[in-house]
Amino acid sequence: xxxxxxxxxxxxxxxxxxxxxxxxxxxxxxxxxxxxxxxxxxxxxxxxxxxxxxxxxxxxxxxxxxxxxxxxxxxxxxxxxxxxxxxxxxxxxxxxxxxxxxxxxxxxxxxxxxxxxxxxxxxxxxxxxxxxxxxxxxxxxxxxxxxxxxxxxxxxxxxxxxxxxxxxxxxxxxxxxxxxxxxxxxxxxxxxxxxxxxxxxxxxxxxxxxxxxxxxxxxxxxxxxxxxxxxxxxxxxxxxxxxxxxxxxxxxxxxxxxxxxxxxxxxxxxxxxxxxxxxxxxxxxxxxxxxxxxxxxxxxxxxxxxxxxxxxxxxxxxxxxxxxxxxxxxxxxxxxxxxxxxxxxxxxxxxxxxx
Length: 355
Description:
Layout: H1 11-19, H2 27-44, H3 46-63, H4 74-108, H5 126-135, H6 139-165, H7 167-171, H8 178-218, H9 223-234, H10 237-258, E1 264-267, E2 272-277, E3 287-293, H11 295-306, E4 311-313, H12 315-324, H13 336-348
Parallel strand pairs: 1-4
Antiparallel strand pairs: 1-2, 2-3
């Protein structure tokens, strides 16, 4: 990763990364939790497992005669033992599978992608293979090697510590009955597994923090990438400017096309021009169907003159209508009287050209 990647990943970049299967997940934490669940499930189902194993042993010793086993019926005997082993392992496997799914869900949330399992034959090219070998000499690979050595050393150290501490009990098993030996060895295994699970879980939490750090570093962006993404989301300013220009031209054409339908044009007389229309079948009050200043006002007056629309000069009313009434908006109640006077004057003079 280049040094210029200094910006935190945007939400869009994070979403794309998840779709590609790039997530922050600790395999060590997965292994620690799965191992712990497996250990506790075996302890919980110990009586069930013992009973099943005892039944299999008793059945085998009681009913199986070696001279009765031949090529024709050996498959039937094996099927029975496979089915018995499945009954023993099935509850344990179900709990372990649920634990694996749960810890993955806790780490990465809801995610389903086929990107990580889809075959990519381009990786078989010489360049990709060479890069694959180069990864063995990267810092990340070295860190993973150190982690593996630490985990193996801790497991070996715990095993040695527990066995060394209880060596006298192990030596005392010489000559003891089988049940005593099973109980002592089971107790030692329980203590060993319990300590290993705790240590591996702590290491898993530490590894999760490290994986979060590596993930955040891997998806960092350059300043230019952030700018480009923002530009793509908001649109190119030049293109947006052109679009706004086109929209304004269409809006202007539509507005100018409405001027010939006006009842009167109220002017400043030169700086402002407001076209009013009063059609009781369409609106309960007069509407501003066109308005503008300077050049636009000139064009409104020009169209009005060409279509013999009355033009009335009223500076205060023209300014007020322009400022407070939006295009296609209705005249507010406080201006009813002033507008009514203009309309009445126009109707009275029977569409004369200019006033």
